[in-house]
Amino acid sequence: MIKIIPPWVILFLIVFLSDGVMADEGDFNRLEMSFKNFLTCELTRLEATDHFNGQPLKITMIDMFDVQNESDLKIITGAVGCFAGDKFLTLYAAVGIKTILDKEQVAYYVIRDKDFSILATELFKFPYKERCKWTQYWIDVQ
C-alpha cells in the first residue's frame, strides 16, 4: 500500500532544509570574502615588503582552503598567487579569528612561502596588530 505524503509536510521539509543550506552558504561566502579582502589589504599596504623585497606586487588569486574551530579560535587557511616584480610567488596564509563582543576580528596572522599545517598553538606565536579590519569590506545583504 502506497501512502501519500501531505503537501504541508513536503513544504515544511523544503523550508526547513533550505534555511540550513542557505545559512551555511552565506557563512562560507562571508568568510571567503572577508579572507580575500583581509589578505588583499594586508599584502598591499605600504609596509608589507617582507615577502617582496620592495618590488611591486600584483595579486592574481586568493583561495580559501579550510576553516577549523579550535576552542574559541576560528582558523582560516588559504593561498595567494602573486607576481612580485617579474617573479611569480605562491604564499600560504593562516588567519586566527576571535569573536569579541559579537564582532569577529583577526587575533593572529601568519603568511609563508611554503605550505604548512597550522594549529592554534603555532598561530598563537603570531599576534596581529589590527591594520586591516576583518569585516572592513563585507556588506551583509540580509
Structure description:
- Helix content is 30%, strand content 35%.
- The protein has 142 residues and is of the alpha+beta class.
- It has a four-stranded antiparallel beta sheet, with helices on one face.
- The longest helix is centred in the first third of the chain and has 38 residues, at 7-44.
- The termini are far apart.
- The model is unreliable at 15-23 (pLDDT under 50).
Key words describing this protein structure:
142 residues; alpha+beta; four-stranded antiparallel β-sheet; 2 helices
Secondary-structure blueprint:
Elements (H helix, E strand, L loop, with lengths): L6 H38 L12 E14 L2 E12 L2 E14 L2 E10 L7 H4 L19
Antiparallel strand pairs: 1-2, 2-3, 3-4
Summarize the structure in short.
The chain is α+β, with helices and mostly antiparallel strands.
Strand/helix succession: HEEEEH
Q: Which structural class do you get from the secondary structure elements?
A: alpha+beta
Give the biggest beta sheet: 4 strands, antiparallel
Q: How many DSSP-defined strands?
A: 4
CA-CA gap between termini: 45 Å
- Helix proportion: 25-40%
Strand order of the largest sheet: 1-2-3-4
Mean pLDDT: 79
